[in-house]
């Protein structure tokens, strides 16, 4: 599927007319028609407006047929699943995540220490 077909599919999924989309993103209907019919390539600015308009990304417009990964929410995962996902990160990202965890645990230990020793 090409870019023009992707744009047409997005528009049709929302049950919109070309002239509605054109007006909403600030294009003349004839200009938008040429983009959707593959006679003219949209600029990055137009792609950005379309992505915002459809609530998607430029990449998803360009590669409409791809299955995009959904957001991963760690709080819905077991501890072992969370660790497995962390292990899949790049070394730099994994190190950052573990550093944040270490910092939070250290902060918690200090708070606990001060609460025990200040109340005594």
Can you walk me through this structure?
By secondary structure, this protein is mainly α. It folds into two domains: 3-62, 434 Repressor (Amino-terminal Domain), CATH 1.10.260; 74-118. The chain is built from seven helices and no strands. It has helices spanning 3-13, 18-25, 29-36, 44-54, 58-62, 79-87, 91-118. Helix 2 (18-25) packs across helix 3. It is elongated. The N and C termini lie far apart (71 Å).
Key phrases:
single chain, 120 residues, mainly alpha, 434 Repressor (Amino-terminal Domain), 2 domains, 0% strand
Order of helices and strands: HHHHHHH
- Per DSSP, the total helix count is 7
Number of distinct beta strands: 0
Radius of gyration: 24 Å
Give me a quick take on this structure.
With 120 residues, this protein is mainly α. It has seven helices and no strands.
Topology, pairings included?
Elements: H1 3-13, H2 18-25, H3 29-36, H4 44-54, H5 58-62, H6 79-87, H7 91-118
């Amino acid at each position: 599927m090409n870019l023009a077909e992707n744009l047409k599919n997005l528009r049709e999924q929302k049950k919109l007319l070309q002239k509605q989309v054109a007006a909403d993103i600030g294009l003349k209907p004839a200009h938008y028609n040429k983009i959707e019919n593959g006679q003219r390539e949209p600029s990055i600015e137009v792609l950005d407006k379309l992505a915002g308009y459809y609530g998607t990304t430029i990449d998803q417009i360009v590669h409409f047929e791809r299955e995009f990964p959904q957001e991963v929410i760690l709080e819905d995962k077991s501890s072992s699943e969370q660790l497995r996902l962390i292990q899949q990160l790049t070394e730099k990202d994994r190190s950052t995540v573990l550093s944040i965890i270490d910092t939070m645990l250290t902060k918690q230990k200090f708070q606990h220490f001060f609460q025990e020793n200040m109340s005594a």
